Amino acid sequence: MVNGSDGDTERAAGYFEAFEATVLGDATLTPSGDPRAGELIARLGGRCRVFGYLSLGLGPGQPAWSDSSMARKFEQWVEMGASGLFLDCSGRDFGVSPRRLARAIDAAHRLDVPVVVNAWDPLDLLAPGITLHGSDGYLAENDVLRGGEFRLRREYRQKLQEVERCRRWLGISVWATGTLGRADGAGTYEPELVDRIALAWAAAEARPPDYLAIADPLYGAPDSRMPLPPHAGRPNAGAAAREG
């Protein structure tokens, strides 16, 4: 369905090829999910790395997966062809203890795939027992650009410095998102947004993110549309998404 592909897997692959990586939603694995996701991943052939989504969150509104269920879902993603796992809601703010996070990371590593961890506090990654590799990453979500507005430096400076601290200590990559103010993800975004985000990170005494995604406020979930990087307005344009 991506950007109006209407079931054409080849056309959909052309859109994804504009990016270095993408995360497919957790519903992909359910009976009501996309039965052609495996075909899409195979067609991409590694040109866009596909990460499978799973929330580690506990408490209200969270799936609270058991360790065995979590491990099985990891296996399903890998069997489908995903080359990595995106661990959402993975910090103490979602009731996730360091032990739970460590078990999830270890389960992914046993399948020989990397993880990208989304936790509000990057220092959660420094807890004892958590082992991350150089192929793993941390997601800093909308710290600079949120809802189309650039935040004040004093609101994100400390966090970006903590992210940089984790990057240096753990040797991991840093991923970041910035959200636009409009819900419609169609079209392209201005290259100046990427430059301004990189400058904001540098001004906060942190190296700009290794990977950056610009998205609508809900990351394309409601309408399967996503904004494209500059100069990638059509399938197979081949623009790189590694920016900053």
3D structure, described in words:
- With 244 residues, the protein is of the alpha/beta class.
- The protein has a single domain (2-215), classed as Alpha-Beta Barrel (TIM Barrel), CATH 3.20.20.70.
- It has helices at 9-16, 37-44, 67-80, 98-110, 153-170, 191-203, and strands spanning 21-24, 49-55, 84-88, 115-117, 137-141, 145-146, 149-150, 173-179, 211-215.
- The strands form two sheets. A seven-stranded parallel sheet has the order 1-2-3-4-5-8-9, covered by helices on one side.
- β2 (49-55), α3 and β3 (84-88) form a beta-alpha-beta unit.
- It is globular and about 45 Å long.
- It starts with 8 loop residues before the first helix and ends in a 29-residue tail after the last strand.
- The relative contact order is 0.13.
What descriptive keywords fit this protein?
244 residues; alpha/beta; TIM Barrel; 7-stranded parallel sheet; two-stranded antiparallel sheet; 6 helices; 9 strands; 30% helix; globular; disordered C terminus
CATH superfamily assignment? Aldolase class I
* Average pLDDT over all residues: 90
Q: What is the SS-derived class?
A: alpha/beta
Number of β-strand runs = 9
How many separate structural domains?
1
CATH class placement: Alpha Beta
Helix content: 25-40%
Distance between the termini: 29 Å
| Secondary-structure element pattern, one letter each | HEHEHEHEEEEHEHE
The number of helical runs is 6
The unreliable regions are: 233-244
> Overall 3D geometry?
globular
* Major β-sheet profile: 7 strands, parallel
Strand content: 15-25%
Alpha-carbon Rg, integer? 17 Å
CATH architecture: Alpha-Beta Barrel
Under CATH, the topology can be stated as TIM Barrel
Write out the strand line-up for the largest beta sheet, numbering strands in chain order.
Answer: 1-2-3-4-5-8-9
